[in-house]
Specification:
The chain has two domains: 5-202, Class I glutamine amidotransferase (GATase) domain (Rossmann fold), CATH 3.40.50; 224-339, Arc Repressor Mutant, subunit A (Orthogonal Bundle), CATH 1.10.10. 45% of the residues lie in helices and 11% in strands. The protein has helices at residues 17-36, 88-92, 95-104, 117-123, 139-145, 176-191, 193-202, 231-236, 247-254, 258-269, 273-290, 296-302, 308-319, 323-330, 332-339; strands at residues 5-10, 43-49, 53-56, 62-65, 67-68, 79-82, 110-113, 131-132, 150-151, 170-171. Strand 1 (5-10), helix 1 and strand 2 form a beta-alpha-beta unit. The chain is globular, with a radius of gyration of 22 Å. Residues 231-329 form the HTH araC/xylS-type domain. One of its GO terms (molecular function) is sequence-specific DNA binding.
Length: 340
């Protein structure tokens, strides 16, 4: 392998364009940042497809694949990324592609997925016995379809540079922006934290989020058809965050016994009532801080955490950041000052 690290990304019909271009732009920006510092580029970017040439994305635009994946020397690839998109299901049934992924995996330094691309890796059997995540909307599909995979629905990515041969070799990430976080983590492992932060600043990213930070999008408004027995209760909870939301209180509101409610929560949401309530409260607190609508103490009271220490513990547990740091980095006032 030469001095340049080849970052290859698989493409296929109806791939999500941002799953491809988002992470790849981060690597390209690392090259630009190194050139600004008088250093040579580090990364070579390559698009792979079933055949070289144009590939239509789900956005209707086309990407141009450099090579057919069958023709590449996998030992010359440092990192292969497998993106998600509307075309994932067809790729999960493409025996030739799945066999190729299994064949090249031992030759790759790193193999990762973005968004629902995790389903392709799972279909190839490459996530068996491993921790994996994906976009929140596909978490249940990953759980239901691949029982040998330890599915983490609450993290941004599973890359761990210190887990040699494990999560440093095969890893997954959640939605589009989580793929960007993953790319920054890979750059930090390759070139150091200072360069990764310089790239993040250049891309106007206020924080390189740690992989363990949680996803939230599915929690506040799940579709009623997905949670038929809980729909009314889940609609009620966000409007009563400052009330008593103990198991007993929720069970009374839902007209169920506490035991039945706990069982239904696990069946329909994959978590217990207490955990769900904490996550909804945290999402509400995050939004209030992000909009700079109230002090941290007021936010803690309004969202049912009561004391700021309870809010701080929940932020650290799920977001790996303190409420104060979150307010400083993401608050509306901070944004306005940066743009002034």
């Amino acid at each position: 392998m030469d001095a340049l690290r080849t970052i290859a990304c698989l493409t296929y019909p109806d791939v999500m364009s941002l799953d491809v271009t988002g992470p790849l732009q981060v690597f390209a920006s690392a090259n630009v940042e190194r050139q600004r510092q008088g250093l040579p580029p580090c990364y070579r970017i390559c698009l792979l497809a079933e055949e070289s040439g144009p590939v239509s994305t789900s956005a209707g635009i086309q990407l141009i694949a450099d090579r057919a994946w069958r023709s590449v020397d996998a030992s010359q690839i440092d990192t292969l990324l497998v993106p998600g998109g509307l075309g994932v299901d067809r790729q999960c049934q493409d025996t030739a592609l799945l066999n190729w992924l299994r064949d090249v995996e031992p030759q790759l330094q790193r193999l990762g997925s973005v968004c629902s691309g995790a389903l392709i890796l799972a279909a190839a059997g490459l996530l068996d016995g491993r921790r994996a995540t994906t976009h929140w909307a596909d978490v249940q599909s990953l759980r239901d379809g691949y029982s040998q995979v330890e599915v983490l629905g609450d993290c941004l990515h599973t890359y761990d540079p210190h887990d040699h041969g494990g999560a440093a070799h095969i890893f997954t990430s959640a939605g589009v922006t989580a793929g960007i976080d993953l790319a920054l983590a890979l750059i930090e492992a390759d070139l150091g934290r200072a360069l990764a932060l310089a790239v993040a600043r250049r891309l106007v990213m206020f924080l390189r989020r740690p992989g363990g930070q949680a996803q939230f999008s599915a929690l506040l408004s799940p579709e009623p058809s997905r949670v038929p027995r809980l729909a009314a209760l889940l609609e009620w909870i966000p409007a009563h965050l400052g009330d008593d939301l103990s198991l007993e209180a929720l069970a009374a509101q839902a007209h169920m016994t506490p035991r039945t409610l706990s069982r239904v929560f696990v069946q329909e949401l994959g978590m217990g009532p207490g955990r769900y309530v904490e996550r909804v409260r945290l999402e509400a607190a995050r939004n209030l801080l992000q909009d700079a609508q109230a002090s941290i103490a007021t936010v803690a009271r309004l969202t049912g955490f009561g004391h700021t220490e309870n809010l701080r513990r929940s932020f650290h547990k799920h977001l790996a950041i303190s409420p104060q740091d979150y307010l400083q980095r993401f608050g509306q006032a901070r944004q306005e000052n940066l743009n002034a």
